[in-house]
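Dear Dr. V.,

Thank you for agreeing to look over these. As mentioned in my earlier message, I'm a first-year student in the group and I'm still getting used to reading structure tokens, so any feedback on how I've presented them would be very welcome. I ran two proteins. I've put each sequence directly above its structure. The first is here:
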Amino acid sequence: MDTSEYYYKNGQFIIHNYNKKKTFANFLPGLAGKRGIPLWAFYVNRAQLISGFGLQDKNHPITLFHSANKAYENVSRDGFRTFIKINNEIYEPFSINAKHENKLIIEPHKVSIEETNADLGIKVIVSYFGLPNEEIPALARMVKLVNLQPEPLKLEIVDGLAEILPAGLGTEEFKALSNLLQSWMDVECLEEKFAFYKLRGSTGDSAEVSEVRQGNFYVGFDRSGLLEIIADRDLIFAYDTSKTLPLNFVEKSVSELLKLPQVNKNKVPSAFIPTDIILNKEYEIFSLIGHTHSLNSLRDKLPQITNIDYILNKELEAKKIIEDLLEDVHTETAYPEFDAYIKQNYLDNLLRGGYPITIGKQIYHIYGRKHGDLERDYNFFSLAPEYYSTGPGNFRDVCQNRRLDSIIHRDVEFFNVFQFGNLIQLDGYNPLSVNGITYTLKTEKIDYLIKKHFGKNCELLKDMFSRQFTPGDLVNFIDRNKIEVKTKEEEYLAEVIDSSDMKIESHFGEGYWIDHFTYFLDLIEAYKAIYPDKFADNYLHNEVFMYFNSPIKILRQKDKSILTKENRVRQYKSLLHLEKPGDFSKINGKYYKSTLFIKLLVLALNKFSLLDPKGLGVEMEAGKPGWNDAMNGLPGLFGSGISETIELKRIIDFMLENQLPDAVELPIEIYELFKNLENSFDYQNRVFAREEYREKTNDGLSGRLNLLLTEEIKSLLNKMAQHLDESLKKLYVDSNGIIPTYLTYEVIDYEMNNQKENTVKPISFVRKDVSPFLEAPARLLKTDFSKDKLRQMYRTIKNTELYDKPLKQYRTSVSLEKDTFEIGRIKAFTPGWLERESNFLHMTYKYVLGLLKAGLYQEFFTELKTNLVCFMNPEVYGRSILENSSFIATSNNPNPHIHGQGFFARLSGSTVETLNIWTLMMLGKEPFRYENGVLVFEPRPIIEKSFFNRNHRLSFKFLSKTMITYINEKQKDTFDNSLIYRYELIDSEERMEVIEGKEVIGDLAVKIRDGYYKKINIQIK
């Protein structure tokens, strides 16, 4: 593959002549280790790459955050620049119009560029990575000059950043008021050979004015020590305000530039390092650009962090941190790109969902954040500026990206089910924002733990322990206040966290999307696949599930059904915001807690009550659509989602397939909802039932309990399941095999609502189907629907616009030209762009994964080779084929130059679909099962023969610890009459236990799950 201008080799993805290739935006991982504070850093494939980096979010930039289209324009002017003067001529490497050969090198932990100037005999290499495990967050930059000639070269160099902002300025603030805000800007410490960029005071127009103590900094050094910095960009560019040419450097030597007086007040500063050298073989400039909360703290650190060996070791450390994480999914197949792709997806998946670590007896996720980048400029990303860093996310994103935690990390066990189950409300909805977990140390433990673990300055901890905190918050506080620690960090953290009350932080956010509940069952199934022996107890007996209570009231149908000026009935403004904080629902003054079974029952009853007037789709009655956000007009059209109906069916089927309790005591409100639905599935009765139920549970539960027997539960669940089965079968027939995703309803009869002006009570409806989308078919593939009908659906879809024949990929929908603009903003999008008729990877991958789950194995492997990014042509895809995009522009887009090109980098739900494909291929659906009181291990790999290497082997890491190798001597598809017949269990001492047969049972199976075996060889015939 390395004959191409794009190729993967030895852990690197390389793009030659990147300046002339299709534009794309990307980012460094922002992953600084447990004891590090991360920076965000975005780059584009132009000039010297970096276009915007800073602390925490867009409101704390070091260099300005630009949207992608502006970043492509500005990076060559305002970003990092290198000017080399040789024989009185100026050479700027990585210029867009340069004729010299260059390349971009992408690795998981860093990004680099190289340019070879054959005329001058110089190679220039620039690399960037985030500084790991440091209290001072910084971007590390290394510039290496290599002499390709036999004779030494005399060079003068000016290298650095054309524009850098003082700390305290927000991105939007600076874009709007940059001329005014220059008045506050100042640069200090140049005489100490580093630059400290700060504001002289707060910029707000208020009576309270404060001095700003925090600052951004730039420091450069080589093997001789610190280098001088020019922060006054006029000394470099003179009157060229476009910053195109370093006019002063053209005229003056480095020594002359350094003698010029700098004016660094009331102007936007820069950070340039001027130096002159004799280049024999190699010369390197190292730079650190970052943020500090305190100038004195930075001064204390400079001697350490400006040491060459320190920086080189930090790069190795940054690499090792990520490599250690990615080892969890180490894979060896006949396709190196596929193996690397799995690792990259794992990295990107944990960057959105978080990485689970164990603190004491608790699970805590680090490194997660809400996605947002130069292309997704509408999303407000945030990286917590603390140790053990983690940021906020959305319920849907975090829940689905953690889907496989229990399968990859044995310690997670039931935690994710517990966390997200607690956030599901009594009405079946959930808050949008998931803000991680905080802890409050129990009062009676404070003095004891302070005395046991801490010494000098420990009295300061009493204030810390009087409030909520995170692990990173605590460790940072101890470091910054120089509190003496008597024990290891792991020890004091474990005891403090285990002695604290945990709080799941969440808030309502922007609304109730109807698809969010659909990801909860995935967490449960993943847990059960590894811990089937523990499932029943947690399912039926463990009363740990609370019910979040958002400060929101969903209006009755008659109060949100609006009569428009055109005499049409629409459903708008569905929510009433209440003047109270979000909390968890209570019963008799205490938080109500239930079992997982009751949680699923409450969820199923609520969602079934939401079936639309024809009993087909789940209504979008709370103002938001489902997975496809751009269908935002559907709630107003009394829209409903068939995808959610399918997922409701999965939940009910799951409950029926598993053991039911003998009886359950339910709060009277839930009991009455159950009985109301039991009496009738009629639409008006369902509307009445849910609205009465909500009215009674808005402020908690009354405290009365009623007993519900197994027979009653089973009877209603069977009736609900039968209704859903019949509805889906009818939709399949009516739609000629492609089940619809969205339905809308026109109100044709109504009564005026006398209690609220211009509102009505709908009486009867007419159904209208939206044009076909891929989502419902993708979800149907996960059910027990007829395999023959699913295969026919697959074939039918390939003959419609849902399939992009030129690209051999899938689209979100057929053409929407026939649909009304009222369905949402999707109609205003260009076809083949964003969610409209493009290859939205998350949905395409759901569909491809569905083929695997449905047992359509030949069809799955056919689609894998054209729809998985790692198998695509990178010249067309336009970026690294190890990294997912949010969507790919399809061949119906009016711009032929972008057909097949990926847009919006990396962080999406597609990463977890990729990992789910990987786990199913390697293990099958349930590697463990529980039979007759005995644990059984029997993986059932679904692997096409081409994935095995020349030695007929394929290896992968199981549960992050054990390397499993399949040996397929006949080189056959494992799903084609193949059978496991032998296990070799090898421990860390290389002792082997051999098991003949298709499964491992009892204590040996438990030892496999516990990670006792280092390697397992499994032979297939």
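The second protein is here, in the same arrangement:
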Amino acid sequence: MNTLWQFPPYLWPLVGAGALALALALFAWRRRPAPGAGLLALLMLAVAEWSGCYALELASRDASRALLWARMEYLGIVTVPAAWLALVLQYTGRENWLARRRWLLLTVEPALTWLAALTNDLHGLLWSQFERVNQGPYTLTSVTHGAWWWVHFAYSYLLLLFGAIILVRELLRASPPFRGQILALLSGALLPWLANALYIFGLNPLHPVDLTPLAFTLAGLVMLLALLRFRLLDIVPIARNVVVDGMADGVIVLDAQSRIGDLNPAARQIIGRPPAEVIGRPIREIAAGRPDLIEQYHDVPEAQAEITLGAGEGQRIYQMRISPLYDPRGRFNGRVIVLREITALRQAEEALRRREAILETVAHAADRFLRMPDWEREIPAILARLGEAVGVSRVYIFENHRGPDGELLTSQRYEWAAPDAMPQIDNPDLQNFSFVQAGFARWVETMSRGEAVYGLVRTFPESEQEVLAAQDILSIAVVPVFIGGEWWGLIGFDECRFERIWLPAEIETLQMAANMLGAAIHRSRVHHQLEDQARFLALLNEITRIAIGTTDFQNMLQALADRLGELFRADDCYIATWDEEQGRPIPRAAYGPMREIYPTLQFPPGEITATESALRLGRALAIEDVFNSPYVSPRIAARFPNRSLLVMPLIVGQQKLGAALIAFRQHHRFTAEEIARAEYAAAHIALAVAKSQALMLTHREIARRKQAEEQLREYARQLEARNEELDAFAHTVAHDLKHALSLVVGYAELLDTLFPRLSPEQQREYVQSIVQHGHKMAGVIDALLFLATAPRQEVETGPLDMAHVVGEALSRLSEAIAESYAEVRVPSTWPVARGYAPWVEEVWFNYISNAIKYGGQPPRVELGADFPPDAPGMVRFWVRDNGPGLTPEEQSRLFTPFTQARHTGKGYGLGLSIVKRIVEKLGGEVSVESQPGQGSTFFFTLPAAENLYHQDTKARNI
């Protein structure tokens, strides 16, 4: 091992230099986004390779191995000069000097030199002689340089000299923070350079040892100092003349006493004075016109604010930044003021803000106009939003129109004014304003082409200035409003506070607002036209529908009057028919306040009326002033509140039916379109009236015939019912009455024949039988009479005290209840119904009587009432028994006269039929619910009274 390697004392500094260079390369590589970091890493990596390979050369005893490491050294040796120059150029902001082609040229010599080192055995251009010599106990290398080595020497030193010159020039004008960096870079190059010169010219005390790699140890320490102390790679200087003088921002350098020490051309332009007048003078003298800036920033070392300089059109806005300057010892040395003009930016931002606000207002207005076709209702709110968005004093709308002689006039219709502006909406000079007479012919010519008129009023012609200045207008923008290619009017914007400069983008946006307004007005016109047309067509359809579907002549005329009044938006509308025999109109129907009065009016024959005049002429009459018209009698005109009339004769063929009159209370000028529509509508109304009259006569005849036929059918039904009742009556008389009468006659004959031989008890028995059967016959006769007369009787109904009515019925049945041991359950309260008490008592009598007759043994009878859900406004009363129940077939015969559910011999079949006729006569119904073996419940309903319940004293069990 000792025969291969050796460790001279000067070996270890080389190892340290290589390690330090490698560490610096890694440190720079991690900061490679900084300018020059990558090249510094390359330079230090080349130094590390050079130092490491040279250390291995010195440590090698073997000549071949030492030659190998000597050749490898040249990879770092040839890289160092080129990397050094590239680092200097990039550090000083001259990296554009090294374009791609120059980089290639810069690498040609290093590549050839390293190739010469690798192939030196073939040509000896780099080392003409390479030998090993002993120096004490160590064996070192001694070389004799060849021709190419001197080429490389000259090339390398030329690059080093060029980079050093650039750094020296930068050092002379660099600020304090960067002077340490430049000195560190110069030292890092000059130390190895000096050591290499000593080696080359034989002045090295350790010859043949090359001290250049050892010098890199000191160079590495200097680089480390530059990295840590002077923030190399963190801040990189750029040439002042390239940056500061070329800056668009104004730069002013102040010393510690706030005196101007330097300023760039942009700052000189802002100040407006040459450098000789300002350099060396205090800043407060230069800015004497701005005491606010002097007081606020006089002693402020660091600040950032937005300031405004100048006035009027020359006013400019700057973003000012004040930064402190310190010397190497950290002492305050002055300040740097940087002024960046942002006037255009602020103007653009303001214009953009206004444009966005205007566009938002336009979008809002468009949405409102789409939702509300009546654009005039939305205009006040939209003008307010538009005025606030544009930021002006007034916004207004003028509408063009023609004067009596055809002259173009305009009038102000709407206006919004800011709180600090004087409104002009009531200015009479702005109504019927003549463009030409007032000296605004230029406006007519410009806006007729669709162009806006805008600018400072003081730049306008004198005739225009006089009118505008009277309204305190300093700046104005007026945009035309077009509707369907026609110049409708204008929308204007006044600024009364300052002379506002209107930007083309603002005018373009305002034109959009005007276009939107024009579209809204056009849409509103079309909408109203379509609406009127739809209303007119709807009227015609309604007239046709009324003529077809209305059989009531008066109702039809009233409906037609209402439709006509709504269609023409008239104050009143009248329809009169014509009495040909008497020669006078007959008022029929009216729309408006005269609706109730008009049909009651009468016009004497022979007096001039609008109806008579229109029928006589056979055409529509447009009467604009009824008080000065030959077509209306003054006496009749005075009876109506109307001033203007449109009279439409109703004529079909040769038949004069009457007239329809559309009336207005104020003076109204009828247009040709109104008259044409009225005549068209009158033709339909005439046909409807004629058809209605014909239908009315036909319907009357048909109704008369139907009524006669219905009466005949009703008579037939009544006759049939009477015949059925007569048959049943004959059967009852023949059966019940005949049977009872036979018994009475039989008992009477027995009494007459056997009376002397009969005992008093037998006589009493026969007499009681005669009386019982006589009462039965009387009951049958009374029931027959009630059944026959009840449908024709008229009684007065009222609220019933149902507890009293039920009590009377139970009182009549007390004997039957006692004989049958019946139990009758009565509720404590009763709903109040309407009816006729005697009849309702008869209903309860029959229901309870049947329940006792056909109930169980003993009978249990329950009375009650409720409100049926299927019959609102009615009260349902019921009687429930515990009898054997009824079959469906028996239930169907219950309420038929002269029938019995069961032939028990207990009745004669008239009670339930009487109940049915009574309840139906009182507006109610009867029904039954029953199942065999479960008893029966009989119902009847009556109309409910207002007081739903009547409180009885207590529940009763009888």
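From my reading of the second output: The chain has a mean pLDDT of 77. The first strand starts at residue 127 and ends at 135. Does that match how you would interpret it?

Kind regards,
E.
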